[in-house]
Amino acid sequence: MRVLIVDDERLARSRLRALLDEHAPDAEVVGECATGAEALAAIETLAPELVLLDVQMPEMDGFGVIEAVGAEQMPLVIFATAFDEYALQAFDVCALDYVTKPIDRERFADAVRRARQRLTTPPAASAPDTKAQLQPLVEHLGRQSQRSARLAIKTEGRLLFLRTAEIDWVEAVDNYAKLHVGKETYTVRDTLSRLEQRLPAGRFLRVHRSTIVNVDRVKEIQPWFQGDWVLILHDGTRLTTGRSYRQRLQAFIDEMS
Question: Are residues 130 and 10 in the same domain?
Answer without folding.
Answer: yes
